[in-house]
Write a structure and sequence with these properties.
15 helices
Length: 311
């Protein structure tokens, strides 16, 4: 009786296709980097535009008998596979370019490594027209090259008036003049620097820090971890590039509990804030430095080893 009622109700109150399509245009896939958030907003917008819209209706459009699939995917219990991604794209009424973007967004969110995330995110950017908006694209560009950050901080301590050869040679290691020009273009577009009345550029923002990562922003994590990987590689190269007196590198191997590990992370956070404050109070900086913090496991938890019968 209930199924029959729903069927009759849907037949007597058909989906207003024109109104639904207008609503879909208000929800642009290019505004998203999290496909689950896009699907959630899409469903809510469609439901607001036409109350009869339902998971059952969408499942029928997607060619699946699983009424709860949409909700399971949005709430993270299931992931979209390649075949179902194509079915969802058709049900969502996406254009070819939008469907490609949506597919790469799914792959980006489900990627198992930073390298994979980077590859799919760059495909997402390539699919966007100039008028499209991709969340966090500018931030991604800032973290994509190590010398963007270095040039920004260099402009906090030197006056520069368009000599890209000189600017490029100031960095360690030196970069190409065209790379220095690109860095200026990016930083100016992001409003991190500006040209003063005298023609020289100056930084407009305080010291930038990546802070502590959170697990609710795939793009943020990808941006920061890519940047940190590059800077870790540069730290290794610095051992050969600079004399020991110009370096301060130390290592500790520790055996601690989960509680102490959390306390150590808090200590590192406090230290980072204190060091940042010291740099901001410095009235006469004369060099740009990179300070890395690295805390990572060298073993499995003791309980896990014992449960697997290891010594």
């Amino acid at each position: 009786m209930k199924t029959s009622y729903i069927k009759n109700r849907m037949q007597s109150c058909p989906i207003d296709v024109e109104r639904t399509m207008k609503t879909r245009k208000l929800i642009s896939v290019f505004d998203y980097t999290d496909y689950r958030k896009f699907l959630l907003d899409y469903y809510q917008a469609q439901k607001a535009a036409n109350p009869i819209f339902s998971y059952r209706f969408f499942a029928r459009k997607a060619g699946t008998t699983s009424v709860g699939l949409y909700k399971d995917i949005v709430e993270g219990r299931l992931a979209l596979g390649r075949v179902m991604t194509a079915k969802f794209s058709r049900a969502l009424g996406l254009t070819k370019r939008e469907a490609e973007y949506f597919e790469n967004m799914v792959f980006f969110n489900e990627a198992g490594s930073i390298a994979e995330q980077k590859r799919f995110f760059e495909r997402m950017l390539a699919l966007c027209e100039p008028h499209d908006r991709v969340v966090d694209a500018d931030r991604y560009e800032y973290y994509s090259r190590w010398y963007y950050s270095a040039v920004l901080h260099l402009l906090m301590i030197v006056r520069w008036n368009n000599d890209c050869d000189a600017l490029a040679s100031m960095l360690e290691p030196a970069i190409q003049p065209q790379e220095a020009r690109k860095a200026i273009e990016v930083l100016e577009r992001l409003s991190f620097i500006r040209r003063g009345d005298d023609g020289c550029y100056e930084a407009t923002c305080p010291t930038i820090t990546t802070g502590r990562l959170t697990n609710n922003a795939s793009v943020q994590i990808m941006n920061v971890m890519h940047f940190q990987r590059v800077m870790s590689d540069m730290a290794k190269e610095a051992l050969d590039r600079f004399p020991a007196k110009e370096l301060d590198m130390s290592t500790l191997t520790l055996a601690v509990s989960g509680r102490t590990w959390c306390a150590i992370k808090d200590e590192i956070t406090g230290l980072r804030q204190r060091v940042k404050a010291m740099a901001e109070r410095d009235d006469e900086p004369d060099r740009v430095y990179q300070l890395n913090y690295q805390l990572f496991p060298l073993s499995k938890p003791a309980g896990l080893r014992q449960s697997k019968g290891e010594a």
